[in-house]
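step 3/5: co-fold with glutamine
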Amino acid sequence: TLEAGVVAVQGDVEEHAAAIERAARSRGREVTVHEIRESGIVPDCDLLAMPGGESTTISRLLREEGIAPEIRDHVEAGKPLLATCAGLIVASSDARDDRVDELGLLDVSVERNAFGRQKDSFEAPLEVTGLVGENGDGDGDGDGDEDESPFPAVFIRAPAIDDVTGDVDVLATWEDRPVAVKQGPVVGTAFHPELTPDSRIHGLAFFENEAASVPEGGTLESEAES
Ligand code: GLN
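step 4/5: write tokens
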């Protein structure tokens, strides 16, 4: 069984847990989801999601609870992290806000609340690079083809990514601004992939991410034995 963690100091935690379970189930994987509110749990997790919410609050709690360095270690060990909306802001290397202590896990700078007041919240059909079908196989022929149908992306007071450096791959743009990126084992989205039934972003972050791995002797191997 895979051990998944959802950072649960604030934000839409249950929706992420459900999306992780859907993405795992559709690939024949078992997963146990842990809510992370204190230190000591992240080191046991094979994969992590950091939800939206309020980035200044999330950042402060991660620091106060001593969770921030554990998330850095997780990524350094090559284990996957999906950071969404406020989670992306916290994972970035520059949020241009003194109240946010960036984790520096993605070489991007972000602009908070970038899409303007009228568009506080909107849904957009996004072309996202590298998505694989809901069942792990877009056309059902078992070869894991890409599924190029647009992803229904829900933006809520979303950040935009305005500078991308290092080895960051831009997976999707909206209004000419990057809104989904990948760097090694980390996938970041400005939108909320957990708020739609489509679990392809979670699948991409956790199961189709060739840069990410579970630890040696980890839970994937024990699963294969049973
Ligand atoms: N506007 C929030 C922030 O800057 C992010 C919004 C969200 O996560 N839905 O932290």
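step 5/5: annotate
Residues 52-55, 85-86, 89, 112-113, 156-157 surround glutamine (CB under 6 Å).
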